[in-house]
Amino acid sequence: MIKLDKVTKRYGETVAVRDLSLEVNDGEVCVLIGPSGCGKTTTLRMVNRLVEPTSGSISVNGKEVLATNPEQLRRSIGYAIQSVGLFPHMTVAANIATVPELLHWDKARVAERVTELLNLVSLKPAEYAGKYPAQLSGGEAQRIGVARALACNPRLIVCDEPISALDVSIQAQIINLLEDLQEQSRDLSYLFIAHDLSVVRHISNRVAVMYLGRIMEVCRSRVLYENPLHPYTRALLSAVPIADPVVEETRERIILKGEVPSPLNPPSGCSFHPRCFMAIPECAEAVPPLRDVGDDHYVACIRV
Ligand code: ADP
User: Fold this and answer.
1) Which residue from 4, 41, 81, 215 has its CB within 8 A of the most atoms of ligand 1, so it is best to mutate?
2) pLDDT by residue for the chain (304 residues), tens digit each?
3) Total number of domains in the chain
4) Is residue 290 part of a domain?
5) Does 18 share its domain with 164?
6) Angstrom distance (rounded) from CA 71 to CA 47
7) Which atom of ligand 1 is nearest the CA belonging to 9?
């Protein structure tokens, strides 16, 4: 389980994440969505202790992240990043073996583990272990990235847009793979960033919608699709095409005015209010708290 409690991260004058609280339970898939620059990557990196929060606390499986040895922490978390980051001059097997967990193992044991991991991500070990990254397709490279993330037997996998760079059919394969892995290990949780809301619908149990460093709405993904409350979430969802042509015909599109403001100089009150189609003068006065509206659904808006 991951718990973030009132976490803030500043980079000089920029407040990348503000007062963010979020829980991801064992076996849960939590997705962060929101516009570029809203603090998604910073949030993942703080969980992994690649950056440290300025204030607030983060715990993973009951242990305070800041009080845990970073290497030990990363051993309990698998980190798969968008650009898989494979070393081009090393074979697939050698790339997987760079994981700290395997560094002190003898050769035979490493080879056995590499075989196991390639099987887990449905790549034939005999065919793939000796290949070089340039010989892999985008989807295959992504699978190797997932295999590497699994090498330390994590209970939590943190993925930074694991699929957005891939074409749609490969995205579907990777999503199926992540789902299969979760079925095999019921305790496995994911925290990941996604851009594509249709992907979110299939894979996540919980979605946190972020905007300028804050969570605007968080709830189970089914609830988000059936009953989005925050105006920003409604605008995001209104841009997603619906497979049913009759429903698609009547789909209400909400076009937001303007751009996301700079985090260096965020608007007063609710940071979304200058672009919001429901804003009233009070929205500029105070930051709306993330309010419990029942059914495990929280929303930061005084208009709903
Ligand atoms: P996202 O992943 O949602 O695109 P990020 O977490 O990468 O957002 O960034 C949030 C904000 O923090 C942005 O304004 C970004 O410019 C800033 N930021 C991120 N990393 C750094 C850094 N290392 N130094 C300074 N500012 C940063």
Assistant:
1) 41
2) 889 999 999 999 999 999 999 999 888 889 999 998 999 999 998 988 889 999 999 998 888 988 888 777 777 777 666 556 789 999 999 999 988 778 888 999 999 999 999 998 889 999 999 999 999 988 888 888 888 888 877 888 887 765 555 566 666 677 777 777 777 777 788 888 887 777 677 778 899 999 999 999 999 988 998 899 999 999 998 887 777 777 677 777 898 989 999 988 899 999 999 999 999 999 999 999 999 999 999 999 999 9
3) 2
4) yes
5) yes
6) 13
7) 12
166 vs 52, 138, 145, 175, 240, CA distance in Å? 30, 7, 13, 11, 19
Question: Is 224 inside any structural domain?
Answer: no
Claim to verify: residue 236 and residue 197 sit in the same structural domain: no
Q: Whose CA is nearest to atom 23 of ligand 1?
A: 11
Same domain, 174 and 235: no
Q: Examine the domain organization and report whether 135 and 251 are in the same domain.
A: no
Residue 52 lies in a domain: yes
> For residue 217, is it within any domain?
no
